[in-house]
């Protein structure tokens, strides 16, 4: 190999090494971190979730539930997954018995899984208010706000020694020595007895289902997977710890543009790298509200890194978000375009236009988890959304504001985050838009399925998106 080719080869290797270590979304669904865009126990729904270890490594994962207003932790615990192990759990509605929150509507976590989860009350673990209690508005610290939100599962470590046989299920199906793992934490809050941590290896997959048993409905989705989250060692924290979280990521992002090109950027904070790989300039999906089948459609938009950018405890508000959390909201302005199935543009709702040509509802995204319900003209909505039971939601009438009458009762919409601020990385490029994940859910009712029978149908569709890199 001559000197010129050798230099080029070395340069490519350096670029590839940097390129491959950056945080990115694994579009095949495997990673070190899984983000589940939405859970709820409202409207008679239960949420069931699972995480699968597809590798031969024994892993410690942090399971974290975050409420939907500001993304604050309401329950965290560790699970020790044996090789090729699965952990499952479910959420149901309940009432709090925690001092200062007695009787408040809340959430109960249930599981029959035998994998090792130190200190977790598997028969019924209440969600906890301790982080919410520290929020800014004392009038908005009820556990009721924890009845919807999202889930994060983060691999913290693999193991090379005594943890492996302690977490192994053997032929009996239960870990041989979960008590050893729990005792290691219980004595001094440090995992130092077994002390056999190694680096995370990825390979987690996950899914969740929103199930209404009474109506015979289920909406299922796959978790969003992040790979290259860690650079070497992870953070094997005590059960119940607020870390690791999305701010623990390696502060470099890798994004695949719509053109097929890759953009790698370096950031000051790890959560900025996660935000970069989740940022979308536009999201798109369909709606169906056909009256003949009592059609209903709702969109979920979750911003899993919003709290790191907009909480007032930060020294300054960090792009791309434009408003700081004040204890009750931090509203980002959006524009929504809606078309029916015959190409009629039914409405454009732009929350940044001031003054508006005429009074209109504003579909601001004020929370970490947001819900939009599609409805015919004149329908104002109820105290909660009809499918997911969201309390703080926006009703979008599909042929309002002087627009033409819809030729069909179904179509598609597009949401644009045009007023977001483009962040500036240390190197690379920033992206226009906001870091958002989510989906559309649809429900239909067939009263004539068969004599004496009523049939319910449900569907869930992941949002489609456009990415726009800042050209400046």
Task: Walk me through the topology.
Blueprint: H1 3-20, E1 24-25, E2 33-40, E3 46-53, E4 59-67, E5 73-81, E6 86-95, E7 105-110, E8 125-126, E9 148-159, H2 163-167, H3 178-188, E10 197-198, E11 204-212, E12 217-222, E13 224-227, E14 252-256, E15 262-266, H4 270-278, E16 279-280, E17 282-288, E18 296-302, H5 306-310, E19 335-340, E20 345-350, E21 369-375, E22 393-397, E23 410-416, E24 431-432, E25 434-435, E26 437-450, E27 453-462, E28 464-466, E29 468-469
Parallel strand pairs: 21-22
Antiparallel strand pairs: 1-13, 2-9, 2-13, 3-6, 3-11, 4-5, 4-9, 6-7, 7-8, 9-10, 11-12, 14-15, 16-25, 17-23, 17-28, 18-21, 18-26, 19-20, 19-23, 24-29, 26-27
């Amino acid at each position: 190999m001559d000197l010129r080719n050798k230099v080029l080869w070395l340069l490519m290797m350096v670029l590839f090494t940097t390129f491959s270590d950056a945080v990115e979304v694994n579009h095949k669904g495997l990673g070190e971190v899984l983000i589940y865009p939405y859970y709820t126990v409202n409207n008679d729904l239960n949420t069931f979730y699972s995480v699968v270890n597809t590798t031969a490594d024994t892993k410690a994962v942090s399971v974290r539930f975050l409420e939907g207003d500001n993304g604050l932790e309401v329950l965290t615990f560790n699970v020790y997954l044996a090789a090729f192990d699965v952990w499952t759990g479910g959420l149901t509605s309940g009432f709090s018995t925690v001092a200062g929150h007695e009787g408040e509507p809340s959430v109960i976590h249930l599981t029959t899984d035998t994998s090792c989860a130190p200190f977790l009350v598997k028969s019924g673990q209440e969600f906890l208010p301790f982080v919410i209690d520290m929020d800014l508005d004392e009038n908005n610290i009820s556990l009721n706000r924890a009845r919807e939100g999202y889930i994060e599962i983060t691999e913290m470590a693999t193991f090379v020694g005594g943890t492996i046989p302690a977490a192994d299920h053997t032929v009996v199906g239960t870990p041989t020595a979960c008590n050893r793992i729990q005792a290691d934490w219980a004595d001094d809050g440090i995992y130092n007895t077994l002390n056999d941590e190694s680096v995370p290896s990825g390979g987690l997959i996950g899914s969740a289902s929103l199930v209404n048993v009474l109506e015979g409905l289920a909406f299922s989705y796959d978790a969003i997977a992040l790979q290259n989250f860690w650079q070497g060692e992870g953070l094997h924290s005590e059960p119940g710890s607020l870390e690791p979280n999305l701010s623990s990521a390696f502060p470099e992002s890798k994004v695949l543009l719509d053109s097929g090109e890759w953009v790698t950027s370096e950031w000051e904070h790890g959560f900025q790298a996660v935000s970069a790989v989740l940022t979308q300039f536009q999201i798109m999906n369909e709606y169906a509200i056909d009256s003949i089948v009592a059609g209903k459609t709702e969109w979920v938009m979750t911003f899993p890194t919003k709290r790191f950018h907009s909480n007032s405890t930060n020294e300054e508000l960090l792009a791309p978000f434009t408003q700081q959390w004040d204890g009750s909201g931090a509203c980002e302005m959006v524009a929504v375009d809606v078309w029916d199935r015959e190409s009629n543009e039914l409405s454009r709702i732009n929350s940044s236009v001031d003054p508006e040509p005429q009074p209109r509802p504003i579909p601001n995204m004020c929370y970490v988890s947001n819900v939009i319900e599609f409805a015919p003209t004149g329908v104002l909505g109820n105290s909660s959304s009809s499918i997911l039971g969201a309390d703080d939601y926006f009703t979008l009438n599909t042929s309002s504001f002087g627009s033409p009458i819809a030729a069909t009762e179904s179509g598609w919409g597009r949401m644009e985050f045009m007023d977001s601020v483009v962040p500036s990385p240390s190197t690379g490029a920033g992206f226009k838009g906001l870091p958002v994940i989510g989906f559309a859910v649809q429900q239909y009712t067939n009263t004539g399925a068969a004599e004496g029978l009523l049939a319910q149908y449900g569907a869930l569709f992941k949002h489609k998106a456009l990415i726009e890199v800042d050209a400046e």
